[in-house]
Amino acid sequence: MTTRKLQPNSNTFYFITFTCYDWISLFEITDLYSYNYKCFDHLKLQRIYNCGYVIMPNHLHMLVYMANTEKTINKIIGESKRFLAYEIVNRLEKLKRFDLLSALEESVTRHERRKKKKHNAFTPSEDIKELKTEKFMRQKLN
Questions:
Q1: How far is 117 from 105, CA to CA, in rounded Å?
Q2: Domain 12-132 coded CATH 3.90.1150.10
């Protein structure tokens, strides 16, 4: 999936999907399901309100309402993914899953390493779609 930069746009609904690196079931392996709620709390502080979601073993879908006009949805979701990624790495270390830690580390590009990135817990992009019709919103909620 490619990331398209969206402009700050308040009073808008979005359907968001983000996926664990290489479709590895990181949410399941690290038992991160309930920890995702902390991500939702972080979003709420950013004036992004969760209207519906499903957490799968290796990806997450959310339908959110954005009331924030200062940042783009891409920026806010990126911050949330980083929040979750740190916890995934911490839990993998506690579980001594060095095989997975190594895979996540090897996926970091040279450019990302220069920015001090150590692991890729998620695919580098997210799918963010603005919900412009009630039909599309209902389809995603269902």
A1: 9
A2: no
Query: b vs e for 22-43, b when ≥16 Cβ sit within 10 Å of the residue's Cβ?
Result: eebebbebbebeebbeebeeeb
Is residue 92 a contact partner of residue 29, using CB atoms and an 8 Å limit? yes
Q: Do 15 and 61 contact (CB within 8 A), yes or no?
A: yes
The helix, strand and coil proportions of the chain, stated in percent and rounded to the nearest 5, come to 45, 20, 35
DSSP character at residue 8: P
Task: Say if CB 18 and CB 127 are below 8 A apart.
Answer: yes
- In which residue are the tokens 């949410």 written? 27
Q: pLDDT (tens digit, 9 = 90+) per residue, 44-102?
A: 998 999 999 999 999 999 999 999 778 888 888 888 899 999 999 999 999 999 999 99
Residue whose token pair is 């963010």: 128
Give CA angle at 95 (91, 97), nearest 5°: 100
In the chain, where the domains are located: 12-132
3-state secondary structure of 49: strand
What is this structure's pTM? Answer: 0.86
CA 13 to CA 1: how far, in whole Å? 20
